[in-house]
Design brief:
This protein is an alpha/beta fold and 208 residues long. It has a single domain, classed as Alpha/Beta hydrolase fold, catalytic domain (Rossmann fold), CATH 3.40.50.1820. It has a 7-stranded mixed beta sheet, sandwiched between helices. Helix 1 packs across helix 6 and helix 3 crosses helix 4. The two termini are 31 Å apart.
Length: 208
């Protein structure tokens, strides 16, 4: 598979590099993903974003499609990693499905780290359909940034999952699947997205 096209933020000569993929319903310029990418770039981290084939096609012809099948999604991640140089320098991840697919190839590709923004632990309303089996043995240092109101995995649910010691969790208070809080929380989405960027930047720096 050929490498996807990338959208870059941050200095080209930055030491730290993060690669982010989008969720199932929106592309690489989705507001939360864009805010986190900008926040990382402002902290001296080079960020590359890309789209899976179905989303890139939607961008060109405007026709909405469902996500590609999993083998295509995983192959796209492998092609993206290969195109960006030494995997040992890359922290990969993304929003929801993009982060989940990254978690499936992280160990295989020997990347530096993994960041998942709103991991889809299960479909909303279907807690029995877990997507966590591979996370129990994940070796790659990982960070999951999750909203406390995320219907894809709440703090109470996630506390009962078997997750590898390599996985850190950071909870965004009152955040939904896009880390957006309710107005009643007294916080704005810009504030929670900035928190996510700060936490991710700290994680990346601490990888050494």
């Amino acid at each position: 598979m050929s490498a996807p096209s990338f959208l870059f933020d941050g200095a080209e000569d930055a030491r730290d590099r993060v690669v982010l993929a989008h969720g199932a319903g929106a592309g690489m310029q989705e507001p939360m993903l864009s805010a986190v990418a900008s926040g990382l770039a402002a902290r001296g981290i080079r960020v590359a974003r890309f789209e899976f084939p179905y989303m890139a096609l939607r961008r060109s012809d405007g026709v909405r499609r469902g996500p590609d099948r999993e083998p295509v999604l995983l192959a796209t991640w492998r092609a993206a990693i290969a195109a960006l140089g030494d995997p040992a320098r890359l922290v990969i991840g993304g929003k929801s499905m993009g982060g989940r697919m990254a978690s499936r190839v992280a160990d295989e590709c020997d990347v530096r780290g993994l960041v998942c923004l709103g991991y889809p632990f299960h479909p909303p309303g279907k807690p029995e359909q877990l997507r966590t089996a591979h996370l129990a043995a994940l070796r790659t240092p990982s960070l999951v940034v999750q909203g406390t109101r995320d219907p894809f995995g709440t703090p109470e649910e996630v506390a009962g999952y078997r997750l590898a010691p390599s996985i850190q969790l950071h909870w965004i208070q009152d955040g939904d699947h896009s880390l957006v809080p309710r107005k009643a929380s007294g916080r704005t989405k810009q504030e929670t997205w900035a928190e996510a960027a700060l936490v991710v930047a700290k994680f990346v720096r601490e990888l050494g």
